[in-house]
């Protein structure tokens, strides 16, 4: 049984960060979306949101300090994200320096608050690289699934677009698309 658990961990966990790997977080996204679809017809307040997180200027960290330092930044940022979430929220490494956070039972305002908590947790304490404290920040994109959506593809796309807009807006911020596809950014 122990070997089976180890194999399951290898198949579902990112070896570097210990978070869910891309395949696992996408499977959880499919499951959460299916559960939300079942609930939405019975509960008009059913909510589900996503947050895409990307480490700002990560390539520069790798180029300046080397890949082992980049790995350290990934591990520490992953831990900071995890510590900013509720026990039943899900987070996984989506790819490279990107993370995907699933916020079940969370509407748009709650997702914004969660994203801002993550942003502040990462920004709050610099990471020690080569015996210097190096500030690390993240940009985040937030999206909440809409009543008419039948799957996760559109909400994932909007979260990614919100992330892009946050980066274009100056990084170290939370971005999102309003219904009319305009950029809204909170004042920092």
Q: Classify the beta-strand content into a percent band.
A: 15-25%
Q: What is the distance, rounded to the nearest whole angstrom, between the alpha carbons of the first and last residues?
A: 51 Å
Low-confidence segments, given as residue ranges, are 180-188
CATH architecture: 2-Layer Sandwich
General shape: globular
CATH superfamily: Reverse transcriptase/Diguanylate cyclase domain
Helix content: 40-55%
Rg computed from alpha carbons, rounded to a whole number of angstroms: 17 Å
Class from secondary-structure proportions: alpha+beta
| Total DSSP E strands | 8
Largest sheet geometry: 6 strands, mixed
Number of domains: 1
Strand order of the largest sheet: 2-3-1-6-7-8
Look up the CATH topology: Alpha-Beta Plaits
* Average residue pLDDT: 90
What's the SSE pattern?
A: HHEHHEEHEEEHEE
Helix count from the secondary structure assignment? 6
What's the CATH first level? Alpha Beta
Give a written overview of the molecule:
The protein has 188 residues and is α+β, with helices and mostly antiparallel strands. It has one domain: Alpha-Beta Plaits (2-Layer Sandwich). The chain has six helices and eight strands; from the N terminus they run ααβααββαβββαββ. It has helices at residues 2-12, 22-40, 58-65, 67-83, 108-124, 153-168, and strands spanning 48-55, 90-95, 98-104, 127-129, 132-134, 138-144, 174-177, 183-184. Strands 2-3-1-6-7-8 form a six-stranded mixed beta sheet, sandwiched between helices. A two-stranded antiparallel ribbon has the order 4-5. β7 (174-177) and β8 (183-184) form a beta hairpin. α3 (58-65) packs across α4 (67-83) and α4 (67-83) packs across α5. The radius of gyration is 17 Å and the shape is globular. The relative contact order is 0.16. Mean pLDDT is 90; it is low at 180-188.
């Amino acid at each position: 049984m122990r070997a089976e658990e180890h194999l399951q961990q290898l198949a579902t966990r990112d070896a570097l960060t210990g978070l869910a790997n891309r395949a696992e977080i996408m499977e959880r996204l499919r499951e959460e979306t299916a559960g939300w679809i079942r609930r939405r017809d019975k509960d008009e307040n059913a909510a589900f949101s996503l947050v895409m997180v990307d480490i700002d200027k990560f390539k520069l960290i790798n180029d300046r300090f080397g890949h082992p330092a980049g790995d350290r930044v990934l591990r520490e940022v992953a831990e900071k994200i995890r510590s900013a979430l509720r026990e039943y929220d899900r987070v996984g490494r989506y790819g490279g320096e990107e993370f995907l956070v699933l916020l079940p039972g969370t509407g748009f305002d709650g997702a914004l608050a969660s994203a801002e908590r993550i942003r502040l947790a990462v920004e709050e304490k610099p990471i020690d690289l080569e015996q210097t404290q190096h500030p690390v920040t993240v940009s985040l994109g937030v999206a909440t699934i809409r009543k008419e959506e039948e799957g996760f593809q559109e909400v994932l796309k909007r979260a990614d677009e919100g992330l892009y807009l946050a980066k274009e807006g100056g990084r170290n911020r939370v971005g999102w698309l309003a219904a009319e596809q305009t950029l809204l950014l909170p004042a920092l």
